Amino acid sequence: MKNVIKYFLISFICVTCFMLHVTWVNAEELKLELIPSSIEIAAKPNSSINLQYALTNKGDPLVVKIEVLPFEIKDSTGQVVLGNRLEGLIGFTIDSQDSRSEPMLLKTNEIKRFTLGIQVPEGLPEQDYYYSLVIVTNPPPIPEGIVSVRAKITLASHLLITISSNGQIQIKPKITLFEPRSQFNLKIGNATVHFFDSSSSIPIVLLVDNTGKNLIQAEGMIAEKGFLTGVKKYEVKSQTILAESQRLLIVDSASANKLTNQLTNNSLVLKGFHIGLYDVSASVNSGKGTPGVYGKTFFIALPFKLLLVLILIIFISVFLYKRFKK
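User: That's the sequence. What structure does it adopt?
Assistant: Structure tokens below.
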């Protein structure tokens, strides 16, 4: 009995010491929703616009700050880079105050509604201007003795502003690259022949430049035509290309099945068994009634792997035949 009491006291002391020295860790859930997520605006010089936003916190309480920043295109996949500070002649206010709000606490399930005011001055050059309404989070203070896994996130709603006094915009798309991505190419004069194995997937790249000073909504079609398979069409749904930038257009069609690479390295991946010569064409426009641009390429698919296996089988068969014949 004495031994039981002794072990109990030792266990009690150990557990008490552990509880006094332990540091509790708390992981926070961050879930914000900003509506609208993106907006296109057409405005005239010397005008004002008011936009309504709703910010909903569906996670743990946190502190947020709202501000407006310019952004630039990072690459042809549509990624952007935010600027460090607001610049330019266009003015912004948040709830009739400055373009940067004071930090505010958002409780769980709380909705913050606010108005973004945009002031376009007289004489502003008629072109596109790109900004983002940015939400930056800072978790609230935590009690002493608790370690919290605290994340800082940035949520942005893009503002795509087109300034035009008469409503006319400049639409100038251009296909700069349209070809299959092959490891085996043969250049003949000005043409490049792309070779694939019949069983391989065939990635297609469609890169479009917007050389105008206004954004465009590019859409169109990619068509594949083979000698035995007929014509297969793949829809390119509307995708935004900002002024003086380029975009890798991605096919979004049920007939295209699942793309083997959805990280926008390819526009389309053709699957299945291919053999012979295939023509691939692309047509891109900026909506009904707008001029289109066109591209054409081709590739050759042959059963190289199958031929290699057959040659190997024939070689082994001949070798064994001669060996046993002797």
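Residues 25-163 form a domain with the Immunoglobulin-like fold (CATH 2.60.40.10).
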